[in-house]
Amino acid sequence: MNSSVETTSVDAVWRDRRAQALLLAATLTIMANATISPALPGLAREFATHPQVALLTRLLVPAPSLAVVLVAPLVGVLSDRVGRRSLLLWGIVLFALAGSAGLLLPGLESILVSRLILGVAVAAIMTTQTALIGDYFSGAARAALTGLQTSARNFGGFAFISSAGLLAGLSPRLPFLIYALPLLVLPFLMRSLPRPTPRAAGQGAEAPETDGHPQWRLILMGLLLFQMITNMTFFIMPTQIPFYLDALGHDGAVMTGTVLGLLTLAGGLAALVYGHLAARLGVAGILALGYAAMAMGIAAIGARAGLPAMLAGGVCIGIGFAWVLPAFVTVMLALAPARRRGTAGGLLTTSIFLGQVLSPFLSLPIIASIGFDGLYLGAGVLLVTISALALIAGVLRLGLGRAL
């Protein structure tokens, strides 16, 4: 199959085997951390005699994120040198082996090590998958695919975590089997993803993009900062909402599942229309709209307006985040030179996971000072401010050209 950019229609992306393969790869990254969450109580019982069982079992979930933060920039540089397709395929193999190792490993320490190795695989998959979107697609098709990437992660996470819950009821080790599933689709990925070929100057619509924006490094630093802040803010939902609901006197477990389930489902559906919205509003316009939706949702949760408002808030946050996240990828791919997309993608991946890791550390002092209400309302103010900045950037374009 020719690896040059051929797909220009938003709707045609669905029929492109390269897009299908990349979306299958995208479903893996969201499940890396949370898939074993339903198994944690069972693992704690299995290793009840371990003196540090409480700490180690809780570290199993964030361990991949910590590894991603450390290695993603290096993986990005490596992908630019050895080839993104090869690194993606090897990353999927490592993902399956390291992820499923917990089925047989004898102790918590060895399982924790396997989770850290899993994070290396996640860094390779996320970085190369994003860079390959830029290599294979351009224009409206690229924008549509970045939205579908978010949708695939949401729906994949919903399916995998639900399945893990059922398997954990049989044995706390069985959810680790889910990590081996990518081996079933690996042959399809190998057939469907051609090796990207460099395009000569003057060849087609992609040629002006190959050298990137003159100030792409400086702009990328700003992009990384806003991506980190966005994820830091978003992750007050999964990390703090259970405790907030409990403090309000609700059934924390049931309501948390409901709010986060609605958030994930709404995000998956909203991401399906990202490409069409971006074509009409531009990236700056959809950033402004996405941040405004997130601000509205988080403020609704902090306002204590009742359960219906809280559920509606979760839906708004899911929709907004599903529009904001692919917009960062779209801008990064438009700004970075083609030969440095892996490096830029690795840095973007690091900023995403760094925001996740830092979120609870920054949230707890704020909660101690002004309470949960203050945290959520303050986050709403921050997000509406960023929405206004995005709108201003869209009007002024700020030298970013077609990236906005």
Automatic annotation (TrEMBL):
Its main location: membrane. Pfam families: MFS_1. The chain crosses the membrane at residues 21-41, 53-75, 87-105, 111-133, 154-170, 176-193, 218-241, 253-274, 281-303, 309-335, 347-368, 374-400. PROSITE patterns: MFS, SUGAR_TRANSPORT_1. Residues 18-404 form the Major facilitator superfamily (MFS) profile domain. It comes from Ruegeria aquimaris. This is MFS transporter. PANTHER family: CHLORAMPHENICOL EFFLUX PUMP RV0191 (PTHR43124:SF3), PURINE EFFLUX PUMP PBUE (PTHR43124).
